Amino acid sequence: MIIYLHGFCSAPASPKVRALREHLAARGLAAEFWCEQLPWSPRAALELVNGKIEEQLARCRLDRHAPAPLLVGSSLGGFYASCLAERHGVRAVLINPAVIGRLDLDAWLGTHHNLYTGERFELERAYIDELRTFDFPAITHPERYWLLVEEGDERLDYRHALARYAGARQSVEAGGNHSFSKWQDYLDGITDFAGLGARTSA
User: Cα-flanking dihedrals φ and ψ of residue 187, to 5°?
Assistant: First the structure.
């Protein structure tokens, strides 16, 4: 199963989520995709996804042919995916991920608007403190990670991610933007990385 973690002020209606969902559905893999709206609170978001991961790992224990869940996270979702990959020892694909330790999080304090849900939210210091609490010093198994970054990311410095995920598989695209403009080019590879590539629709 692919478990997708969207970014800050994003949603399951985002173009990347829709593209991956449709890609899997066209191959008869609709049931192997999960993405839900994440709570604003980092703690609550991690608890929600953690429950889904544990559910899928329990499924793997019952069915030895079931592949372990693959986490796919974009931006802040990439940070969450890293935290949970470290906790559970599963693999993760990270798309222009946020490197929390290199960000001026105080600059994000205030009101934010979710373009997909219309919701307005006040980012308070308590949530920033949660993010810092969940940060970790380094990844322990680089081979579990696949980093996708574009040099033209206008929100995050891609070089921070290259350093953070040193030793991991890294795909670096020239140009682009924070939304990762080459996303469609990687859908087959991500499906394979999840162990789902051999299955097709009828």
Answer: -65, -40
